[in-house]
Amino acid sequence: MTAPRLLGAPEVRPDIRPLDARRVAPASRVLIVSNRLPSTVRVDEGRVQLTPSAGGLATGLRGVHDAAGSTWIGWSGAPAELPSATRREIALRLAEVDALGVPIHGPEIAGFYQRFANGVLWPVLHDRDDHPDPDPDDWATYRAVNARFAAVVAEEARPGDRVWVHDYHLMLVPRLLRARRPDLRTGFFLHTPFPDSMASLPQRRTLLDGILGADVVGFHTPAYAARFGDAVRATLGRDVELASGAGFADDDGRAVSVHACPMSVDAAGFAARATDPRVIRRVQELRAAGGPLFVGVDRLDHTKGIPERLAAFERLLDERPELRGRARLLQLAVPSREDVPAYRELRARVEALVARVNRRFATLAWQPVTYVYGSVDEVELSAMYCAADVMLVTPLRDGMNLVAKEFVASRIDEKGVLVLGEHAGAAAELRAALLVDPRDAGELSRAYARALDMSPAERRVRMRRLRARVDAHDVRRWADECLALLGADLQASERRGPGR
Ligand code: ADP
Ligand code: G6P
């Protein structure tokens, strides 16, 4: 492997040819590669069931996949140790949604997915150092599973295909794939924040070098891209300039460019759903009790700041007695990573807090917190966004946070206030929200009160600004930008039609 050299931006060396989307062969496909597929397989008493996958990566990329006619390579969600007939059925069902499964066995799911990726890497990337020490065997499993993904992609890819690898589960895939298929153009996009420090992670050199096997590296915000540059400089000793258009160059003349492209949502789709009669009816039901309605919608994850959010709501009820009997918080938590100990502990903590607030304040006629542990369909989700007086999106750290953008996209009535944690990637764009420090209970509860007290005129002005941003930078624009950097053309794919 040759050491990348600094590419001074924006002077591109003449022997490094900038990518030109028009050079893509018409028959080339986009291969999306991520651990999580758009649908997750569950096998229940031998019956194969596909459910939509939770989380921003799957929800955000699903529409892009449909439009781009791509093939999506990832883990089905089920262990590979299944009878061959069941495995065949899973493969067929995945093929119906243009997906290809990478087999992962039960012990590998534990070592690769639960312990290394979600027990160690996820907290590191969110700037937490309270994770267990990475186990060498789990690291070996992470490497083995990454190598398997690279092998499946190398086998599947035709000359000229573009490979778009996603997220922290697969940081080694770009380098491993390059070793097998140097002809392929590869992008890597990280959906999490990039942390201030990776010092607590002994494997950081190999992981960073793995990412640098890509031709294009993408992050949600310029700050993450800059921190990635700092980490490459500090860890690999490589000098790097991350101004726009800059990146690295391998000795063989290959450019590695680094970009910030904020992911977004199907803004038009959420706006249209807000006028769906089923949504309108549900909004009326959700609001029937009267009184201010606070709403939270999250995967149940320790990065989302749910306990802090609940504690601030409790404080609001303490400090503003007139809200007792009236204000309600509807908190929806989608189950996530239930086999990882930190997630089980979080669930117990959140449920204890909900019980405490309700025990302290509930009356026969009113319950302050309604907590739902589960997924809801798109009608219910849109109804919650449209019913909210105050939307609480207060992650301690978050790569982007699509919930904030989905809420904004849904509020065609220009009402509703967004309280947004300042450490969410979305805060870099949604400056017209009420930005808060999510760990400061006093500041949070003051923001809740301010949202309630805000004049209708100020709400409208803020929501208009928020909506203008999300409308102009929807998921389509994100995909267009990323795929153009990769040398793929979404419009050309659409002309060819899906599945080709
Ligand atoms: P993350 O990727 O960390 O889960 P995001 O906010 O970026 O966070 O994305 C979460 C996605 O999951 C959003 O598209 C949101 O609509 C969806 N979602 C979150 N909670 C639920 C739920 N309880 N039911 C259905 N969808 C949910
Ligand atoms: C975040 C991660 C995704 C992941 C999702 C759901 O959005 O960035 O990579 O797919 O959470 O988590 P899960 O562990 O269910 O895939």
Structure description:
The protein is of the alpha/beta class and 500 residues long. It has two domains: 19-263 and 478-495, Rossmann fold (3-Layer(aba) Sandwich); 267-472, Glycogen Phosphorylase B (Rossmann fold, 3-Layer(aba) Sandwich), CATH 3.40.50. Helices cover 44% and strands 17% of the residues. The protein contains 17 helices and 17 strands. The chain has helices at 56-68, 84-96, 106-125, 136-156, 173-180, 204-211, 222-236, 267-273, 277-286, 306-319, 341-361, 378-387, 402-410, 441-453, 456-472, 475-486, 490-496; strands at 5-7, 30-36, 39-44, 47-52, 71-75, 99-101, 162-166, 185-189, 216-219, 247-249, 255-260, 293-299, 328-334, 369-373, 390-393, 417-421, 434-436. The strands form three sheets. The chain has a nine-stranded mixed beta sheet, with helices on both faces. Strands 14-13-12-15-16-17 form a six-stranded parallel beta sheet, with helices on both faces. It has a two-stranded antiparallel ribbon with strand order 3-4. α10 packs across α14 (441-453). It is globular and about 65 Å long. The two termini are 35 Å apart. The structure holds adenosine-5'-diphosphate and 6-O-phosphono-alpha-D-glucopyranose (G6P). Residues 36, 54-58, 167, 191-192, 336-337 line the site of 6-O-phosphono-alpha-D-glucopyranose (G6P). Adenosine-5'-diphosphate binds at residues 54-56, 59, 297-299, 332, 334, 375-376, 381, 400-403, 406. Belongs to the glycosyltransferase 20 family. It comes from Roseisolibacter agri. One of its GO terms (biological process) is trehalose biosynthetic process.
